[in-house]
Amino acid sequence: AHYAKALEGERFTIKEEQFNTVTGEVEYRQITFNPMYNADQEVFGLACYAKDITEDTLNLMALEMTKNDLQKIMDSSLDMICVVDENDRIVKISAASESILGYKPEALAGTPLFNYVHPEDKEQTKLTAAKVMAGENLTYVENRYIHKNGSAVPLIWSARWDSKDKLRYGIARDATEKKKSEEA
């Protein structure tokens, strides 16, 4: 079927999976079909090129599996996991953002983190972020964020800076119940 398609003049590439009975392993090839034309621009044959892409394919499959595993961790965490760039923009945030702040992760991604920090806590939070970006790993940092419904949400953070990737990683826990217990 591929040869017939190419003989009609279409140039295309396919990925083929094949079980090698000698090694007992699955192998992958990328096959390119090129119609060959004569002087009258009529197809008279095909040029096919096959390339072994087994290693690349297995690496991509492993990477995809790892990515899926990490996404499961992000999605199942009851705490909010957040990645923020050097300009204080949210790069990625876990699904817990919806239960804690009322926002879906896709609504927060790309927005400035300080848009959600309680106005009374912004200056202290900026100082804390600067400490983290200077290399200080912090735990039990408390501040308040504004929920989508306008209410204040107390959070307890831990954060660290990755100077190579220029990203700040943080994990926040909703401290509402803790604060109620302290007040009681």
How do you describe this structure in short?
The chain has 184 residues and is α+β, with helices and mostly antiparallel strands. It has 6 helices and 8 strands; from the N terminus they run αβββαββαααβββα. 32% of the residues lie in helices and 38% in strands.
Notes on the protein architecture:
The protein is α+β, with helices and mostly antiparallel strands and 184 residues long. It has helices at residues 2-7, 54-76, 96-101, 105-108, 122-133, 176-183; strands spanning 12-20, 25-37, 43-52, 80-85, 90-93, 138-146, 152-162, 167-174. The protein has a five-stranded antiparallel sheet with strand order 5-4-8-7-6. Strands 1-2-3 form a three-stranded antiparallel sheet. The longest helix has 23 residues, at 54-76. It is elongated, with a radius of gyration of 27 Å.
Beta-sheet strand percentage? 35-45%
Structural class: alpha+beta
How many β-strand runs?
8
What series of H and E elements makes up the topology? HEEEHEEHHHEEEH
Helical content (DSSP H or I, runs of 4+): 25-40%
Q: What is the makeup of the main sheet?
A: 5 strands, antiparallel
The backbone outline, from C-alpha atoms, is elongated
Write down the overall mean pLDDT: 94
Number of helices: 6
Distance between the first and last residues' Cα? 75 Å
Strand order of the largest sheet: 5-4-8-7-6
Search tags:
5-stranded antiparallel sheet, 32% helix, alpha+beta, 184 residues, 8 strands, 3-stranded antiparallel sheet
